[in-house]
What we know:
The chain is mostly helical. β1 (77-78) and β2 form a beta hairpin. The longest helix is centred in the middle third of the chain and has 27 residues, at 172-198. It starts with a helix and ends with a helix. It has 18 helices and two strands.
Amino acid sequence: MRPYSKPILILSALLALAIVIMITIGLERETGPLVVLFFISLAIGFQGSSRLKGFSFTVLIFAAVSASLFYPQFFKEIGGFNLKELIIPLLIIIMFGMGTAMSLKDFAGVVKMPKGVLVGILCQFTIMPFIGFGLAYTFNLPPEIAAGVILVGCSPSGLASNVMAYISGANLALSLTLTAVATLLAPILTPFLMKLLADQLVPIDFLGMLWSILKIVILPIIAGLIFNKFAHGRIQWLDKVMPKISMAGIAIIITIITAAGRDSLLALGLTLVLVVILHNAAGYLLGYWGSRSVGLDKKSSRTIAFEVGMQNAGLASGIALEMGRIATMGLAPAVFGPWMNISGSSLATWWKDKIITEEERSTMDI
Length: 366
């Protein structure tokens, strides 16, 4: 741990104590600055610790979300410009960055690992959509909020699952292949599943959603793949800065969505958080044990758990915006994104310490 981490973490503890005291005496609305400072100081403190460093970005997201909940007026409009207009361009940049981190080799894994890819894709586009559908109705969520939960489930996985597979020592090649294949299938499967499961909640335009996904995801990723093929390594500063731009873009998108849907989020609050936690946990659990039940090895099953449990919440947010329902359908993705990074990082760290025997490594039944 770096020297500055301990005093800053102590400051975080003092801020947390002050927040609790203010809430106790009925000054909840005045805690805004302290809550934001608490998360910022906690993120800085985590950054100086090798074990906690991976959580610092997620904590900064919480700082941004807190600011947008307490002061939504600053995150809706600036000088007459509606900040929601930034979401699609930012998503396109993020997806371009995702493309630059991929290569055509990722798609070749379909041939090398057919069973793992088939099982992973089946789990991806069955478990999360139907679990989301069940949770939305079990908790009797308002129609557009419920549609947002289902939309998260119908979305493909993203780069976050690849990162967690790498950290945990799972099958990274399979993870990259599954993300690539699921993303390519998303323009067809996501609108189809939404039409099947959510059309009774909100009108689903199949072709409109297909075009949205092509525009937001597929075309930028193709551009990123082309960049990676012909220019990777030649513009080194861009290679280094793209991940940071993507992280900043995600933070901005979540903040804007939170501000736009503040009233609905405060009204549902703990209910929506609980639904998201259950949805995410079911993805990990059923993805892992579903894979094990058909004979996949532990490394590959861990990979599929991440691919199923961690969705492309950014894409779901973009679709919600394209449908004109960012303040309602966009809330579940805005909550799911930060939470999956917390749970995914925790699970990856735990699995990293669980040794897989050499015999298990050699039985790659995929």
